[in-house]
Amino acid sequence: MSTRLRRPSIIRQLSITVLLIAFQAYLGYSLLHGQYGLKGQEQLRQDIVELEAERALLNTQVDDLRHHLSLLDPARLDPDLITELARSQLSMAHENEILVSVAQN
Fold first, then answer.
1. Could you tell me if residue 101 is inside a domain?
2. What is the chain's pLDDT, residue by residue, as a tens digit (105 residues)?
3. What is this structure's pTM?
4. In a domain? residue 58
């Protein structure tokens, strides 16, 4: 009994080669231009710097608000602060006082 070996088709070999080269080209493109590629990492670093600056600004605002809130603590109220807040919110003044209005932006 004779055995016949089949030679692999050249078209099949070429198609596999072309497919693998196309896949490598896609990976190379993704390495450079993908969301997490080299250029994408630069954008992520810039975003991190911007967000850290924004976080620092928000932290200072939070600290200012906490300080202002601590001044209104019932355990240690400042009578001058209460008078100042009441007068500014109610638009009241004594007869012998001079009012100076400052526009706030």
1. no
2. 677 777 778 888 899 999 999 999 999 999 988 888 888 898 899 999 999 999 999 999 999 999 888 877 777 777 787 787 788 788 777 788 777 777 876
3. 0.51
4. yes
Residue 17 phi/psi, 5-degree rounding, is: -65, -45
How far is 81 from 78, CA to CA, in rounded Å? Answer: 5
Question: How many CA atoms lie less than 13 Å away from 41 in the CB half-sphere?
Answer: 5
Residues of the domain holding 83: 11-90
Distance of CA 23 to the CA centre of its chain: 34
Q: How many domains does the chain have?
A: 1
DSSP state of 94: -
DSSP letter string over 41-61? HHHHHHHHHHHHHHHHHHHHH
Backbone angles phi, psi at 78, to 5 degrees: -100, 115
Residue written as token pair 């109610």: 90
What are the backbone angles phi and psi of residue 87, rounded to the nearest 5°? -65, -40
CA distance 74 to 82: 11
